[in-house]
Design a protein that fits this description.
By secondary structure, this protein is of the alpha/beta class. The protein is built from 10 helices and 10 strands. Helix 8 packs across helix 9 and helix 9 packs across helix 10.
C-alpha cells in the first residue's frame, strides 16, 4: 500500500533522506524510531506530496505520488502531532467540513456515529473544538480516516504529549485500524508504544534506515537497547545490543 524506492531528499548540501527502500503492506503498522532530524518526518512529507523528492519515488497503492499527487491522496489519511481543527466548530462540524472538502457528505447522525467509533462520545462531539484536548483532536483525525475509508494512514509523532489514558486509547484505535487491513506508517519516539502497536519497527539515523525488524521477535526493553546502541555508537551494533539484553 505504501512503498518507497530509493527515496531521497536533499536540502542543499544536507541529505535529509538517503535512498530509502520501504514497504508497508495492508494490515501492517511500521513504526519508525529515530532522533529529531533522522528523516522520519521527511519520509512522511514525501508520501504526502508536501515535498518533491531529489531522486527515487514514493507510491501509494501503486500510484506515484510525484506523477499523480491528487490520485495518491485519495487513499491516504494524515494525522500530525497536532491535529488542526476550527476552534469555533464542534467535532461533528469539523468532521463534516473536512469530509466535504473531499466530496463526501454524510448526515449528522452518521458523523456522530463515526466519531463515536473513533472514541469521541456524542456529548463531546457536539462541543466546540476549542475545548478539546490533544487526544480528543486526534480522535477527530481518526474519524476523518474512517469516514474517508483511507487505506493508508500516515502519523507523525501522534503519541507526543499524550497522557497514559489518551495514549492507550490511540493505541487501541490504531490496532483496530490495523486489524481492519489498513496500512499504517508512524513516526514516533515512544519505543514501548511502537512495540505495542507495530508489526515492524525501523530505526532511522541521519536520513538512513539503519535497522528494521519484526516487532514480535523482541520485547520493548530489547528494542530500546538496540535503539540506544545505534544512537550512541553510530554503527550497526544490533547483535551487540541483543547479546547485552
Amino acid at each position: 500500500m505504501l512503498e518507497a524506492k530509493k527515496l531521497t531528499k536533499k536540502f542543499g548540501g544536507l541529505t535529509a533522506l538517503d535512498a530509502l527502500d520501504l514497504k508497508v503492506e495492508t494490515g501492517e503498522v511500521v513504526c519508525l524510531l529515530g532522533a529529531n532530524g533522522a528523516g522520519k518526518t521527511t519520509t512522511i512529507n514525501l508520501f504526502l506530496g508536501f515535498l518533491e523528492p531529489s531522486s527515487g519515488a514514493a507510491y501509494v497503492n501503486g500510484v506515484s505520488v510525484q506523477q499523480a499527487p491528487l490520485d495518491s491522496k485519495k487513499h491516504l489519511a494524515y494525522i500530525p502531532e497536532q491535529v488542526a481543527l476550527y476552534p469555533q466548530l464542534s467535532g461533528i462540524e469539523n468532521l463534516d467540513y473536512f469530509l466535504r472538502l473531499t466530496g463526501i457528505r454524510k448526515s449528522r447522525a452518521q458523523l456522530a456515529s463515526i466519531l463515536k467509533e473513533a472514541g469521541l462520545d456524542e456529548k463531546a462531539a457536539r462541543r466546540r473544538a476549542s475545548s478539546y484536548s490533544k487526544g480528543m483532536r486526534q480522535k477527530v483525525g481518526i474519524a476523518i480516516a474512517l469516514a474517508k475509508d483511507a487505506k493508508a494512514l500516515l502519523l507523525d509523532e501522534p503519541l507526543s504529549g499524550l497522557d497514559p489514558s489518551a495514549a492507550n486509547a490511540l493505541s487501541h484505535s490504531l490496532r483496530a485500524l490495523r486489524d481492519e487491513g489498513r496500512a499504517i506508517l508512524m513516526a514516533t519516539h515512544d519505543v514501548f508504544r511502537a512495540k505495542e502497536i507495530g508489526t515492524r519497527i525501523g530505526i532511522m539515523k541521519a536520513g538512513k534506515l539503519i535497522d528494521a525488524f519484526d516487532a514480535s521477535t523482541l520485547d520493548a526493553g530489547e528494542i530500546e537497547r538496540i535503539y540506544l546502541a545505534h544512537m550512541h555508537d553510530g554503527a550497526d551494533n544490533r547483535e551487540k545490543a541483543g547479546a547485552a539484553a
